[in-house]
């Protein structure tokens, strides 16, 4: 770069240091945990309990919680437990997790949804629900993403995604693609790339690498905005792969400037988008998790 170009090698380490100073200290149990939120529609009148049936789990566990069930209606609880059998056990009520707990409640939260989380949460399960008069369990097992939001229809006894998967994918893609285009586009301009071809290459390369990032990381990306350490652990390795791919693509496809400048741009742009890209994910954290 010429003498008028900004000293990116000095700016970004300082920016990263300032960002780290703003992030709260990490807790011992830091890191994303699997979770699922269940909304019930066409619910019957009265009290409804809900749990998750998991297959091939122990019928007893050190994580069973009889002390948590003192305030529950025993009749409804018995109906819910009647759904166990043929190798299917209630993950929360019976405590059928494998060497780890599941947190939540058979009763809904204040917002009317059921929420189960933590490392004992089964990846594949059947939604089970009971009232004082009836108990039902979905026939088809459901396999969740790392963060799941599903709708259980009591009337049809079926489960569906709260947000259609294609819509969820493109919403999450937009949360990283748009900030990346803004940040890396500004740096492309600062590096002196002005031709229409350069900008078309820039748009195409970023579209491909961002889609690849989301396919590789999946729903873990929704959890990345909770804490900068989570973000770093989730994004850092994919970001290194992206930098190598973009450096090669820009070196081959761009025509302006020297090859060394094209590769230097790829490095500077990815450092900037890695550091600054945390903020949009952090601000959109609750929204992305709700999809």
Quick overview of this protein structure:
By secondary structure, the chain is α+β, with helices and mostly antiparallel strands. It has helices at 8-22, 74-81, 165-190, 196-217, 220-224, 228-253, 259-276, 278-283, 285-290, and strands at 35-41, 49-55, 88-90, 114-117, 124-130, 135-137, 142-143, 147-153, 158-161. The strands form two sheets. Strands 2, 3, 5, 6 and 7 form a five-stranded antiparallel β-sheet that branches.
Topology:
Elements: H1 8-22, E1 35-41, E2 49-55, H2 74-81, E3 88-90, E4 114-117, E5 124-130, E6 135-137, E7 142-143, E8 147-153, E9 158-161, H3 165-190, H4 196-217, H5 220-224, H6 228-253, H7 259-276, H8 278-283, H9 285-290
Parallel strand pairs: 1-8
Antiparallel strand pairs: 1-4, 2-3, 2-5, 5-6, 5-7, 8-9
Helix pairs in contact: 1-7, 3-4, 3-7, 4-6, 6-7
Identify the overall geometry: elongated
Report Rg.
24 Å
Helical content class: 40-55%
The beta-strand count equals 9
For the sheet with most strands, the description reads: 5 strands, antiparallel
The proportion of residues in beta strands is: 15-25%
Query: Which H/E pattern describes the elements?
Result: HEEHEEEEEEEHHHHHHH
Mean pLDDT: 85
Oligomer: single chain
